[in-house]
Specification:
By secondary structure, the chain is of the alpha/beta class. It folds into two domains: 108 residues, 2-Layer Sandwich (Zincin-like); 110 residues, no CATH class. Helices cover 51% and strands 10% of the residues. The chain has a five-stranded mixed β-sheet with strand order 1-2-3-5-4, with helices on one face. α4 crosses α7. The protein is globular and about 55 Å long. It starts with 6 loop residues before the first strand and ends with a helix. Zinc ion binds next to α3 and α4. Zinc ion (ZN) binds next to α3 and α4.
Length: 220
Amino acid sequence: MINFSDMEKIDRNVYVSKETSNSDKEHLLTIINNSKNRVENLCGSVEADPVFVICNSHEDYTNFGMYKVDGLTVIYPFETFVIISPDGINENVISHEICHAELYERIGFFDDDEIPLWFHEGLASLVSHNQPKSFDGIKKIWNKRSKNGRVRIDLNEIASYDGFYGSPAILDLPYWRAALEVSRWYKISGKEGLLELVTSIKSNKDFESSYIMIEEKNLK
Ligand SMILES: [Zn+2]
């Protein structure tokens, strides 16, 4: 569990390392606010209310059991934590994590398994850039990274935790592959489609048929 004893509370649900300067604290609250705005643009509103744990020191970060990644969203049935490393204190990383928290919030702890990881990461990748990334923009990047399609990643290969994060040889390619697919779908289905997908899964329909059905409906 999260132990806040070494952290300072600077706002409701925002904890920082004790050595954080006042100007950094203020800047941080602005970053969180701007990051929420990015997610609001994507999802229509922000329903998630995660607890932010912003580590200004690597020591604090490792104390929370973190390493390697710039940020992580940790979910429990009644609470979600967004834990950020010293390298992740920026809008790109924090928006990405809030987007994960948002999808968890809307789907619910117990239905989250229904969502393939490529959808979670693909959706979060749509807010983790300075410029909002459209399908066309991501396609250009993907073509370059995949050597014009010579590198192939099947979505089924990156649906599970091990499949998505398991291959260090391909670095961030799964993120771009996931972003390519989700931006393609989002361009057709839009915000409304995203909300419909959530509702559909919450009423016990499976992800895949809901995903396809919503896209087909919006293509008409
Ligand atoms: Zn992510």
